[in-house]
Design a protein that fits this description.
Largest sheet: 5 strands, mixed
Number of strands: 14
Pfam families: 5TM-5TMR_LYT (PF07694), HATPase_c (PF02518), His_kinase (PF06580)
GO molecular function, one term: kinase activity
Helix content: 55-70%
Distance between the termini: 79 Å
Low-confidence stretches: 489-493
Protein name: Sensor histidine kinase
Organism: Paenibacillus phytorum
Subcellular location: Cell membrane
């Protein structure tokens, strides 16, 4: 019995070493996690099925109450049996893959054992099936790590129960019963102990591998945070310069041979060279189109491993959060700038002087119009202040701000200005950034129709149109003024350009569309500015 136990341990040791060698492969490690990657399930099943069959072939032939070591078993006589380590493969498959995996491997191993024959063939066919199911049911115990019992102790216990189940089946199903009893008396204890130790040994190695993964993961997490700390201030640079500097950091810190940044399918930044092995880091803001992606190239495929991919995926998330944070700050500043410019434009002494002077002249001659102007001024100032505290408002609110502003302006310009609005009422509740339409109308007046002879006409159009095959709201502000370039030359100021840049950057942030303002302007004919609302 002792010699049989030693022989069994030798075979189990060889099989455990073989399983551990294969478990070092990327696909096996990806699947073997308790929350494993199901992409590799068929490889996992194939490996442990082959493993269980190999364990059967490399067993020890037992007949006439003795055993005879052999390098390979091809057939079993009707009066013989096999002492083997098949249980090890089936139990490991169930513990790592669950009931389904344990059942599939058990069925394959059982049918193979039945094909070899012997008086215990039926019992040895059924046993692996039940062992696989038993191990699969015990999988949750490994995931939860019951109380103070380690996974190694649990593995030994499951192996012991599985092998004991096989011995019980032999006693119940094998005929003649006397031979079955003699067989179990001979191989029962050595095989049960050897296979239980084999399952436990595998999980000793597996736990070592998990600790190694944890150590590598901790190192990668530290590296990701270190890189994120280096890249945070870089996002405050201009976008193209920022991604160029970040690409340099990624290339150096990740020991890559190349780092590239692409946007909308075209390469913006190239650092180093390309190879056949790369990993992508996508930079995006939630609910918006991807901003772009960094692609890191490595010299060897070994550098592209699951642990590194997980780390780089986390790093991509950190970079995206950094970009979103910096852009949020930038948008807050842009909104503040828009508010300041709007208030400066409307609250400057000339504007107030003109409005109040008009009110003064109307008090005696047109008291009702004077009262209306005061109401419009109050409404305009109130909406200006309320919009400055919001990131998004409805088109309806922005339109009301425009009408308050025009009421004040038109009282001074009189018949020299006409305003037309074509608005689809279904779109009035669409959200847009504040101070987008009103500054465009203001530009049309100050830098357009104010400098032309005759009646100035401004049109505001809000309607649905097709964009990339989908219906979206499109807002258009057009005038019949002198044209944008002529207006800039005559005004000798950059106010119009600053306002347009501010609006464009805020639309780009919220909708992610390159060049969101579509500007058509002809000298002496007028200007048309449009943008999409998604």
């Amino acid at each position: 019995m002792l010699q049989l136990f030693v022989d069994m341990i030798e075979r189990v040791g060889f099989l455990i070493a073989l399983a551990f060698a294969f478990s070092r492969s990327r696909w096996m490690r990806s699947y073997m996690s308790y929350q494993g990657n199901r992409t590799y399930q068929w490889r996992f099943l194939f490996f442990f099925t082959a493993y269980a069959i190999l364990a059967t072939y490399s067993g020890v032939t037992v007949s006439d109450y003795t055993y005879r070591p052999a390098p390979w078993i091809g057939e079993v006589s009707p009066t013989a049996a096999i002492a083997n380590a098949r249980t090890v493969g089936v139990v490991i498959a169930g513990l790592l893959g669950g009931v389904k995996s344990g059942l599939i491997v058990g069925v394959a191993a059982g049918l193979h054992r039945y094909s070899l024959g012997g008086f215990v063939a039926v019992a040895c066919m059924i046993a692996p099936i039940l062992q696989g199911v038993l191990a699969g049911l015990c999988r949750n115990a490994f995931k939860k790590r019951f109380r103070k019992v380690s996974s190694i102790q649990l593995a030994f216990l499951v192996g012991f129960m599985a092998e004991s189940l096989q011995m019980a089946l032999i006693l119940v199903l094998a005929k003649p019963w006397g031979d079955a009893l003699n067989l179990v008396s001979l191989i029962g204890l050595p095989q049960t102990l050897a296979n239980s130790i084999g399952v436990a040994l595998y999980f000793v190695l597996y736990n070592t591998m998990e600790r190694e993964e944890d150590r590598i993961g901790a190192e990668h997490a530290h590296k990701a945070l270190q890189i994120a700390d280096m890249t945070m201030p870089l996002w405050r640079l201009e976008f193209e310069k920022a991604v160029r500097e970040i690409a340099k950091v990624l290339n150096e810190e990740m020991k890559a041979v190349g780092a590239f940044f692409s946007k909308n399918g075209s390469a913006w930044v190239a650092e180093g060279r390309k190879t056949k092995h790369w990993i992508d880091l996508f930079i995006h803001i939630p609910n918006q189109r991807p901003i772009g992606q960094f692609r890191l190239y490595f010299e060897r495929e070994q550098d592209d491993n699951p642990s590194r991919r997980r780390m780089l995926s986390s790093l991509a998330g950190l970079l995206s959060q950094q970009y979103a944070f910096v852009e949020s700050e930038r948008q807050s500043q842009l909104l503040a700038d828009a508010e300041i410019r709007s208030l400066q434009a409307q609250m400057n002494p000339h504007f107030l002087f003109n409005v109040l002077n008009t009110v003064k002249s109307f008090i005696r001659t047109k008291p009702e119009e004077a009262r209306q102007m005061v109401m419009h001024l109050s409404k305009f100032l109130r909406k200006n202040m309320s919009h400055s505290n919001q990131r998004m408002i409805t088109i309806r609110d922005e339109y009301e701000l425009v009408m308050s502003y025009l009421s004040l302006i038109k009282s001074r310009l009189g018949d020299q200005m006409e305003f037309y609005a074509e608005i689809d009422e279904r779109l009035l509740d669409h959200q847009i950034p504040p101070f987008t339409i009103q500054p465009l109308v203001e530009n049309a007046i100050v830098h357009g129709i104010k400098n032309r002879k005759g009646i100035g006409v401004i049109k505001l159009i809000v309607k649905e149109e097709l964009d990339d095959g989908k219906l979206h709201a499109r807002i258009t502000v057009e005038d019949n003024g002198v044209g944008l370039e002529t207006a800039r030359l005559q005004s000798h100021e950059e106010h119009a350009g600053m306002a347009l840049r501010n609006i464009e950057q805020r639309l780009l942030y919220h909708y992610g569309r390159e060049h969101p303002l579509e500007i058509e302007s002809k000298s002496g004919e007028g200007t048309k500015i449009r943008f999409w609302v998604r």
